[in-house]
Amino acid sequence: MAFNADISGNNAVPETPMERLYSLISEDMEAVERLLVERAASPVSTIPDMSSYIISAGGKRLRPMITLAAAKAAGGRIGQPAHCLAAAVEFIHTATLLHDDVVDESELRRGKLAAKKVWGNSASILVGDFLFARAFTLMVETHSMRILDILSNASCVIAEGEVRQLAALGQAGLPLDEYMAIVEAKTAALFEAAARAGSLTNTPEGDESAALGEYGRRLGRAFQLVDDALDYGGLTDKLGKSVGDDFREGKLTLPVLYARERGGPEAQKFWDRALNVSTQTEDDLDIAIEQIRVTGAVEASLDTARREAEMAKDALARLPKSDCADALADIADFCVDRAY
Q: In which domain, by residue range, is 173 found?
């Protein structure tokens, strides 16, 4: 079994922001990959098989890369505690993907059949639980109660965010601040925890860890807003899931909120009906995509994501100048640029 992040490619010179960041921490990422293999091992074959299937399915390892880069930006060196932390972050992320695909009834994940389509719902949930448990054993190995506190709290917030999103399904009139609270919880919390805790493997808590935590929070918000915009952009190959998945599930996302707000009374009636899965029809997705197009909702969503990315870079400006800090700033732009 092997876990291979789809990052470095075969180019001698890094070309993308992801490749440039990877080049700065490549040896440490290799150590993290080894940890992922080692800690996903189990005599119960379904566990390593499913873990390998989803972790090696083209994922970019963005969260563990941010963990390591934050450690390096804060102290110039990366050690075993940061490796354990980065692996824990990736396991938490993977566990949430396994659980989400069951809850969302997703067919695809990263362009492949979702694990639950191969092994079933029950196995996906239980293997997700196993990876969560493994993450906590890795956190303990950082020998930092503060890091354990940050990551365990983030895990609770992520779960709360998913429940809030579930409760909001079909509520077309969802307030914007509630939507952003869901984004903050279910996506940004882990980015923030990865960056803040990563820095604490090298430096005491203070201005640098706060700046990196703010960077992660803003980056996570931008990342999710772009994903939400891509759901209506006809870019299945970039998104790794079917276009319209969020719509079919009745999820309220920023493009929908903007389209409903800008479209007038008739548009509001459409969204109120179409986002209720019990009254949704087969033709509604095409109408929804057209509504979002004519109202400029995707562009408005990406503008919002760009503002979040700029605030992420502003937070990095509070750090000492370094190659890793510069690479993290480029990642903020990359997270938005991937939509174009």
A: 19-337
Total Cβ atoms within 10 A of residue 305? 23
Which residues, 6+ apart, have CB-to-CB distance to 134 below 8 Å?
Answer: 39, 40, 88, 91
From the list 64, 4, 29, the residue with the least C-alpha distance to 331 is: 64
Q: Is residue 318 part of a domain?
A: yes
Q: Summarize pLDDT for 291-322 with one digit per residue, the tens.
A: 999 999 999 999 999 999 999 999 999 999 99
Residues whose CB falls within 8 Å of the CB of residue 22, separated by 6 or more in sequence, listed in order: 5, 7, 8, 14, 29, 65
Q: Please report, for the domain that includes residue 78, its CATH number.
A: 1.10.600.10
Asked whether the beta carbons of 115 and 101 are under 8 A apart, the reply is yes
User: How far is it, in rounded angstroms, from Cα 162 to Cα 212?
Assistant: 24
Residue 79: per-residue pLDDT: 92
Q: What is the DSSP string of 29-90?
A: HHHHHHHHHHHT--SSTHHHHHHHHHHTSS---HHHHHHHHHHHHHHS---HHHHHHHHHHH
Q: What is the pLDDT of residues 238-278, one digit of tens each?
A: 444 566 888 988 889 999 999 999 998 999 999 999 999 89
Query: How far apart are alpha carbons 54 and 1 in whole angstroms?
Result: 12
In a domain, 310, yes or no: yes
